[in-house]
Amino acid sequence: MALTLAAATTYTAASSRQTLSSNYIDFATLGTSDGWAQQYLPDLMEKEAEVFGNRTIGGFLEQVGAEEAMTADQVVWSEQGRLHLSYIGHVENTTQCANTTGTPAGGQLTLDQTIDGITLNAAIIDNGVRVNDTLLVATSAGTHRLIVTAVALNVIDVMPYDATNNNGQLGNLAGLTGTGTDDDGSVRILVYGSEFSKGTTGRTGANQPAFRSYTNKPIILKDKYEISGSDASQVGWVEVSGEDGQSGYMWYLKAAGDTRARFADYLEMSMIESVEGDSAQSAADGVALDAAHTRFGTEGLFSAVTTRGNITNGLNSPTWQVNLGEFDLILAEFDRQGAIEENMMFLNRATSLDIDDMLAGINGGYTGGASFGVFENDADMALNLGFSGFRRGSYDFYKSDWKYLNDHSTRGGINAIAAADAVRGLFIPAGVSSVYDQVLGKNLKRPFLHVRYRASQTDDRRMKTWTTGSVGAVTSDLDAMEMHFLSERCLVVQGARNFMMIQG
């Protein structure tokens, strides 16, 4: 009978115990359990180090808006138009502008756009201008006062109001130079009143209130955390903690908490960064437009402000005097767009410090002394140069650092690379606006910025969380615990022209 013997093991005595590469394994290295470091009780720090502080960026939308339920596949709202009739146009018929008869020469103006840049329909009368309206028309050469004599769609016949200076009234309109500060070569037209002769009939036609409708669609966001039933029963040596305050020695508590916190941040970041998708996508794009691959998207905050709001690249000068001048230009734009008196500023660190320096320079406390009078700040706030609120002109501003724009793992890292498109801050109007709800058929008060989420008596999809598997409450024969997260939501940005983005 033949025997196969096991390989011999050689034990070599040493004069002293040594730590060798063959027998030393630290806790940071995965390996066998018979290493040197495993032979003695370690001095183990049982608390996980929170080296990044609070890692979530949530809370922005909670500070500036609200959340409301919706029951449809889209939300539609209407915003009030401007009260006064003001347009961008051009001279249609320059030959009529010449004074050839000694009598006031007439002319024609074409109304191209509203003052907000909305193109007028050349096939219908949608401008509100009527016969006998008195106009103030501006060019880079000066202003002119005219009266409307006829209206044909978006082309209006006008006569100079001042018969004694008719040679310049319309003659200057024909020779635009486009050299003014806010002049692109077009005329600016304002209806400032009307005038009728004695014994004339009343107005022909009536103007209706102007409004513009906007829409946005919700998107569905999902996430999941999964752990096997066996691992869910493991107890570790290190006490872990999550963003929601949970703590313990079971790793899955932290992992599940991190997944939930990350998903909550996804909800916020999606409302900020999302854009509307291309509904005309074809198979040529490489992905078919089917139930599994949709690109409908939704309009996020940055997209709404870029499309319908205002953008500035200022407030980054090393001198507070330059920043003050640029800040006042922002105020001038707010004056043109409706003058919402209270505004919140959410800024990255560099821009926030520039604003602090600007305020300190105005206040006189930056170079020496302790003058607090302008902003009525207490001594501690003034000495720290951390002005949280201030007033400039007729506007109140409340300033806050926005972690999302600073954190290297979120927008802060993106901004560091894409300098031209870097978002450095936002001006957001505070309070509420009046909008017409087309479903309810009445005017309602709504925050300028708020989230709408799908919900009904059957299902609330604001933030759904449920657990499946056989761990805990058994729902299936899967030897695991699956934690599911889902939300369906979109953002409503009302009055975007009152928002200002600091970019670049």
Tally of DSSP helical segments = 11
Number of domains: 2
Assembly state (oligomeric): single chain
Helix fraction?
A: 10-25%
Report the structural category.
alpha+beta
Q: Low-confidence spans: pLDDT under 50, at least 5 residues?
A: 16-37, 174-183, 365-387
First and last CA, distance: 86 Å
Give me the count of strands: 23
Strand content: 25-35%
Q: Report the major sheet.
A: 6 strands, antiparallel, barrel
Average pLDDT number: 75
Taking all Cα atoms into account, the compactness measure Rg is 34 Å
Overall morphology: elongated
**Sheet with most strands: strand arrangement:** 3-4-7-6-5-8
Mind explaining what this structure looks like?
With 504 residues, this protein is of the alpha+beta class. The protein has 2 domains: 52-81 and 210-504; 86-195, Thrombin, subunit H, CATH 2.40.10. It contains 11 helices and 23 strands. It has helices at residues 60-64, 166-169, 171-174, 229-232, 251-273, 301-308, 320-337, 349-363, 379-384, 403-406, 411-417, and strands at residues 67-70, 75-80, 86-93, 107-114, 133-139, 142-152, 155-160, 187-194, 211-216, 219-228, 240-241, 247-248, 310-312, 342-347, 389-392, 395-401, 423-429, 432-437, 442-447, 449-454, 464-469, 480-493, 500-503. A 6-stranded antiparallel β-barrel has the order 3-4-7-6-5-8. A 6-stranded mixed sheet has the order 13-23-17-14-16-15, sandwiched between helices. Strands 1, 10, 20, 21 and 22 form a 5-stranded mixed sheet that branches. Helix 7 packs across helix 8. The longest helix has 23 residues, at 251-273. The protein is elongated, with a radius of gyration of 34 Å. 24% of the residues are buried. Mean pLDDT is 75; it is low at 16-37, 174-183 and 365-387.
